[in-house]
TrEMBL record:
Protein known as: Glutamate synthase [NADPH] small chain
PANTHER family: GLUTAMATE SYNTHASE [NADPH] SMALL CHAIN, GLUTAMATE SYNTHASE [NADPH] SMALL CHAIN-RELATED
EC number: 1.4.1.13
Catalytic activity: 2 L-glutamate + NADP(+) = L-glutamine + 2-oxoglutarate + NADPH + H(+)
Top EC group: oxidoreductase
Domain called FAD/NAD(P)-binding: residue spans: 147-458
Name of the gene encoding the protein in the UniProt record: gltD
Cofactor: [4Fe-4S] cluster
Its job: Catalyzes the conversion of L-glutamine and 2-oxoglutarate into two molecules of L-glutamate.
Organism expressing this protein natively: Paraglaciecola psychrophila 170
Length: 471
C-alpha cells in the first residue's frame, strides 16, 4: 500500500498525555505519560520528509530527525535508537527538556498551519523503549588507542565529550565534585521534568561503553589540576556556570530570601537521600511564595514550591509574557498546577519587617519600551506605581554568570570579557583554549544556555581533541 502523503492533515498532532494537575501538585515525578506504540507510529508518519529538513538544521546537534521518525513509524526501534545515538549523547533527555517550540518543532514545516510533528516526545520514546528492550549503543567497531583524556564535569558537555572520545577508542576519565553524574540534569532540573532514574541508567550504560567516572572529587581542591595535565593526553573543562545573578537591591540577604539553585539542589538532595543536614532543606510548605524571574529556573522554582505544599505561589516578571525567555510549555504546565503570574512588574527592594525578615518585594509597574542591543524590548518603569507584593518567602531566579575557577590563570586559560572560557569553535582545533592541551565547552564557554547546546559543544570539542591527538 502506498504511503498516505496527507497523513499530516488526517491525523492531528497529539502531545503525550499529562497527568491531572491535582496529582502533579503532590509528586516529584514526570508529568508526561509515555506515548503508545500506535500513537508514536501515527505521529511519526505525519512527517513530510522535507527535502531540506529545517527541523534538523534548527536542532543544535543536527539529529537525523526525518530518518528516525520513519524508522519509529515502521517499529524499527533499535535502528532508530542507534541512528539517534549517532548525533546525540542524551536523546531521551533532550526529548524531555529541550524547548522544542524554539528549536526542532518550531522549525517544522507543519508548525504554523497543521501542528508540528511531536519530535521531542518521539525522540524520548525511541531511546527509552530501546533501552527497556535491551538495546545498547553499538561499540563493536571501536578500535582502542592508548590515549586517555581527563574530563572535568559530568554534566551534558562533559558527557557529550566523553561519548565521542570513547567511540573513537580514547579513554575518557570524567571527574565530578558531586556524588552523581549529570551536572544540572541531576542537581538543577527537577524530577517533574526529568526523573533521576533516567540519568542513573545512563551512568550504567556509559560505564559499560568504557567511560570511567571519578565522583566526589573536586578538581583544584581534592585533586590538583596539574595531576590531570601531567597524567592525560588532553583535558576537557565542562564545569558549567554557577554564579547566581543578583538583583542588586537592598535586603537581598534578608532571612526569607533565597537563591534559586541552592533551593532546587536542597530539594533534590532530600529526594535522593543525599542531604548532609536537615537544616539544608528549604521548605515552602504553607508559605506565600514569590519567585522573581522569567526563565526555566524560575518555572522550576515555582513548581517545586507548589509540590512542597505552598498554597500561594506567584512568579513576577519585569517584561510581558511574550518576552519570557523560558520554554512556553513549562509556563503552561506551571499555570495548570496553580502558579499565579504577574507580568510587567520590576522588583526594587526586598520589603522587611522590624526584625529584618522579608515580608515581600517592593515592585514598580513597567511598560515595554524600545529594543535593547540584543533586540529585546526594555521594561520602562511607570512612575508612581510602586507597591509592595507580600510574601513569606522570596526566591531570586535571575540566571547565572560565569564562575571560572581561580586557578585557570595559572595554566594560561584565558577568559573573555564576560568571564567565559575562550575556546573558539572554529579555532585550529575546535574548542581548544589558549592552553593547547586544554579544551572546553558548554555553559562555561557559551554562558548559561541549554542541555542540547552543552552536549553539542562537548561533542565538537571531542572532535577537536581527536584532531589534536592525531587519532
Ligand atoms: P553543568 O550541567 O553545570 O555541569 C557541570 C558539572 O561540572 C557539574 O556536575 C559540576 O559539579 C562539575 N564541576 C564544576 N567544577 C568542578 C570541579 N572543580 N571539579 C569537579 N567537578 C566540577 N536546559 C534545557 O535545555 N532545558 C531545561 O529545561 C533546563 N532547565 C534548567 C533548569 C535549571 C534550574 C537550570 C539551572 C538550568 C536549566 N537548563 C535547562 C540549562 C542546562 O541545565 C545547562 O545549560 C546545562 O546543564 C549545561 O551543561 P554543562 O555540562 O555545561 O554544565
Ligand atoms: Fe529537538 Fe532537542 Fe531533540 Fe534536537 S535534541 S531534535 S532540538 S528535542
Amino acid at each position: 500500500m502506498s504511503k498516505n502523503v496527507y497523513q499530516f492533515v488526517d491525523v492531528e498532532r497529539i502531545d503525550p498525555p499529562k497527568k491531572p494537575s491535582i496529582l502533579r501538585r503532590e509528586e516529584f515525578a514526570e508529568i508526561y505519560q509515555p506515548m503508545s506504540e500506535t500513537q508514536v507510529a501515527g505521529q511519526a508518519d505525519r512527517c513530510l520528509d522535507c527535502g531540506n529538513p529545517y527541523c534538523e538544521w534548527k536542532c543544535p546537534v543536527h539529529n537525523f530527525i526525518p530518518q528516525w521518525l520513519s524508522l519509529a513509524n515502521e517499529g524499527r526501534i533499535f535502528e532508530a535508537a542507534e541512528l539517534s545515538s549517532k548525533t546525540n549523547t542524551l536523546p531521551e533527555v533532550c526529548g524531555r527538556v529541550c524547548p522544542q517550540d524554539r528549536l526542532c518543532e518550531g522549525a517544522c514545516t507543519l508548525n504554523d498551519d497543521f501542528g508540528a510533528v511531536t519530535i521531542g516526545s518521539i525522540e524520548k520514546y525511541i531511546t527509552d523503549t530501546a533501552f527497556k528492550q535491551g538495546w545498547r549503543p553499538d561499540m563493536s567497531n571501536v578500535v582502542k588507542t592508548n590515549k586517555k583524556v581527563a574530563i572535568i564535569g559530568a554534566g551534558p558537555a562533559g558527557l557529550g565529550c566523553a561519548d565521542i572520545l570513547v567511540r573513537n577508542g580514547v579513554k575518557p576519565v570524567v571527574f565530578d565534585k558531586y556524588e552523581k553524574i549529570g551536572g544540572l540534569l541531576t542537581f538543577g532540573i527537577p524530577s517533574f521534568k526529568l526523573e533521576k532514574e533516567v540519568i542513573a541508567l545512563r551512568h550504567e550504560i556509559f560505564a559499560e561503553m568504557g567511560m570511567e567516572f571519578v565522583l566526589n572529587t573536586e578538581v583544584g581542591r581534592d585533586l590538583p589540576f596539574q595531576d590531570l595535565l601531567d597524567g592525560y593526553d588532553a583535558v576537557f573543562l565542562g564545569m558549567g556556570t554557577y554564579k547566581a545573578m543578583k538583583g542588586g537591591f537592598d535586603n537581598e540577604k534578608a532571612p526569607g530570601v533565597y537563591e534559586a539553585l541552592p533551593y532546587l539542589i536542597a530539594n533534590v538532595n532530600r529526594q535522593l537521600g543525599l542531604e548532609k543536614s536537615p537544616d539544608h532543606f528549604i521548605d515552602m510548605k504553607g508559605k506565600k511564595v514569590l519567585v522573581l524571574g522569567g526563565g526555566d529556573t524560575t518555572m522550576d522554582c515555582v513548581r517545586t514550591a507548589i509540590r512542597q505544599g505552598a498554597p500561594d505561589v506567584t512568579c513576577a516578571y519585569r517584561r510581558d509574557e511574550a518576552s519570557m525567555p523560558g520554554s512556553r510549555r513549562e509556563v503552561v504546565n506551571a499555570r495548570e498546577e496553580g502558579v499565579n503570574f504577574k507580568f510587567n512588574l520590576m522588583p526594587l527592594d526586598i520589603a522587611v519587617d522590624e526584625n529584618g525578615k522579608a515580608i515581600g518585594v517592593k515592585m514598580v509597574k513597567t511598560e515595554m519600551g524600545q529594543p535593547d542591543a540584543e533586540g529585546r524590548r526594555r521594561p520602562v518603569m511607570v512612575e508612581g506605581s510602586e507597591h509592595v507584593l507580600e510574601a513569606d518567602a522570596v526566591i531570586i531566579a535571575f540566571g547565572f554568570q560565569p564562575s571560572p575557577a581561580s586557578w585557570f590563570g595559572d595554566y594560561g586559560i584565558i577568559l573573555d570579557e564576560k568571564g567565559r572560557v575562550r575556546a573558539p569553535k572554529h579555532g585550529k582545533f575546535a574548542f581548544q583554549t589558549s592552553n593547547p592541551k586544554i579544551f572546553s565547552g558548554g555553559d562555561m564557554v557559551r554562558g548559561s544556555d541549554l542541555v542540547v547546546t552543552a552536549i553539542d559543544e562537548g561533542r565538537n570539542a571531542a572532535e577537536g581533541i581527536l584532531d589534536y591527538l592525531g587519532v
